[in-house]
Amino acid sequence: MNTIKMEKDHLLHKWLNNETTPEELEQLKADPEYASYVQIADASSGFEVSEMNSESNFEAISNKIKPVRQLRKSNVFSIVWKVAAVFAFLLSGYYYTTTLDTSVKTEIAQTETFSLPDGSEVVLNSGSEITYNKKKWDHSRELSLEGEAYFKVTKGSKFSVKTAEGTVSVLGTQFNVSARDEIFEVACYEGLVSVAFNDTLLKVPAGNKIQIENGKLVINKPSENLSPVWLADESSFENAPLLMVVKELERQYPINVSLENVDSTKRFTGTFSHQNLELALKSICEPLQLNYKINNNGAVTIETKNSK
Amino acid sequence: MKEPENVCNENTFNLLYEAHGKPVWRFIYFKCGDTAQADDLVQEAFLKLWQNCAKVTKEKAKSFLFTVCNNAFLNEVAHTKVVLKHSKIQTDRTNFHSPEFLMEETEFNEKLKNSIENLTEAQRTAFLLNRIEGKKYTEIAEMLNISVKAVEKRMSQALATLRKEIGNV
Lengths: 308, 169
Hints:
The complex is a heterodimer of chains A (308) and B (169).
Chain A: H1 2-16, H2 22-29, H3 32-45, H4 54-99, E1 102-105, E2 112-115, E3 121-124, E4 129-132, E5 141-152, E6 159-162, E7 166-170, E8 174-180, E9 183-190, E10 192-197, E11 200-205, E12 208-213, E13 216-222, E14 234-241, H5 242-252, E15 256-260, E16 267-273, H6 277-288, E17 290-294, E18 299-304
Parallel strand pairs in A: 5-6, 15-18
Antiparallel strand pairs in A: 1-4, 2-3, 3-5, 4-5, 5-8, 6-7, 7-10, 8-9, 9-12, 10-11, 12-13, 14-16, 17-18
Chain B: H1 10-32, H2 35-51, H3 61-75, H4 89-93, H5 99-117, H6 121-131, H7 137-144, H8 148-166
């Protein structure tokens, strides 16, 4: 029964789609229920429905389109603005990043040699940082330094190294600047260097070095070295407080030094190597009558010889 | 390969109006039963087509129009009855039948007309698209964005409702 109904439904839909043969239609009409469907459907096709007024609607559409067309033009204009805005943004981004300061930094037991835009050479000692601006370099050779660095400046306009302690300016020379804690040290190896600190302006000729502690000149005398000793993997001190020596040691070796019963203001004059910790400790402790102990976790203890 | 033609060209747009304006109008009229609303919706659809002309290819324009109209219709709340005019077949047949038959047929048509007007929107649209516009189920399915099976169901339901309303004839 159900399958017959399904079959008839199928036929009905086929007829509604105009796909039946006359025989199939007769078959469909044999059932009074489906015959009435056919009659209803047939009669329905005869009805007329309102037609669209093609012209009036087209006119209405055209009228609506016109302002849109004008709007589209201003859209194109706004796209131009958008593109311009993006370019402006990119340009300002480019300008910002290129005018940003360049900085070079070294970690413990690491030195870095690099060139500045004018060809001047810089060797940066361990645990130091140099900041300069590539864009402005052409009209002002100026950089700031924290720590220690050796400069080989090509001849040209004034070359300035700014530190927290003072400013070093030159025209073209080789010199070393060390600005660590309160101690500011400048050694000149070629040419003439002028050092400004507090309100004083000091000229350091080739072969001389000066040391400023807490804004006071403590050393100003000829140096026997032709280039900074740290370039030869050594650290050299002249009448320096032990604390400063220990700090330098900690910068050159990955160690932690603790002083026990030792006067940290004790003065040290001498050199230690960056290659051998044992040797370096010996060179510091022997002349000062100190003992040292290296623990396996990288900690070093320095104590007075006669404390035991 | 040629790039698919979009409808930004004014001539293309006018041809599309010629070809699809009336069917789209009918389609939407079957749905809403209001000529003024149908006018609005059709104008809206063609306006949208023009605004999006760069994105719509010539081939896609037809379904774009139907979809836009359908969506616009779904957004409108007011649904009114379709007003059908009297059958034209009626006049053809007058010559061959007795006055009683004519009476009967007029009565039948009147009943049928009222019943169609009272069908649900879904049934009515499918039924009239098939009966008056002569659309095949596949075409109706595409326009209404439903399956062919769903069209079949709506047609069956419409016929059953009409038969019940009119009474066994």
